[in-house]
Amino acid sequence: MISGLRSDAFVESPGSAARLTVRKAVMHDIAPILHLINSYAARGIMLARTEFEMSEAIRDFSVVTFDGQLLGCGALHFYSPTTAEIRSLAVHEHAKTKGVGRKLVEALVAEAEQYELDAVFAFTYVVDFFSRVGFHVVERGALPLKAWKDCVRCPKFQACDEVAVLQILRPDHWAEAEPQPWGPLMTSPTDELIQIPNLRLP
Ligand SMILES: CC(C)(COP(=O)(O)OP(=O)(O)OC[C@H]1O[C@@H](n2cnc3c(N)ncnc32)[C@H](O)[C@@H]1OP(=O)(O)O)[C@@H](O)C(=O)NCCC(=O)NCCS
Hints:
The chain has helices at residues 30-41, 51-57, 100-114, 127-132, 144-149; strands at residues 20-24, 61-66, 69-78, 83-91, 119-124, 136-138, 163-168. The protein has a 7-stranded mixed beta sheet, sandwiched between helices. Strand 2 (61-66) and strand 3 (69-78) form a beta hairpin. The chain has 5 helices and 7 strands, in the order βααβββαβαβαβ. The radius of gyration is 18 Å and the shape is globular. Residues 40, 45-46, 89-91, 96-102, 122, 124-126, 128-129, 132-133 line the site of coenzyme A.
């Protein structure tokens, strides 16, 4: 039973280790991932996903399962040769605060390290959670690629209230102040200036 999930369930022991698993997602995970993400999307907490989008992006995803039942998911989406975004991170209501989210982030960060990335970032409302798992808050302007790749298509572009958080994996390679290899800051592929929106307070 998921309700029987204990906070120390990831500690390796003969009873729990076999039942609680973090692994890369496969195709049969698409339906439960969609159900989880879109239940949060219906409350405005996450962006809704479609089956087409999930099929395209399934290799980005890792999942945590308990007795084969999906408890949580998260994706590592590459942005550049040096950076990736952690996104679509979600844990079922009944499994929250038991370390599932941390386990997912740890798995995604480990994957980023395998790919020799310099840093991973996220845009989030749960800043305290990301602080707990090793991220720090940065200016959104420090992540310009995100702005023209995704934000320009987002309905919240002009009133974005998500916070950018970053975890640097290879400090010796990462230089936030350096010009980015993909070109001038705030410039789109068509050379149109893109204004990074600031938080609009009521
Ligand atoms: C955010 C979310 C993924 C966290 O998952 P979780 O499994 O509950 O988190 P964990 O139990 O692994 O918590 C790890 C740490 O963060 C803390 N934490 C978890 N959620 C938190 C929150 N909402 N606010 C502050 N701290 C939080 C925990 O107390 C824990 O701290 P500790 O290890 O120092 O004791 C989950 O609440 C969720 O799915 N939320 C809805 C979807 C969402 O907002 N996703 C993020 C999109 S970027």
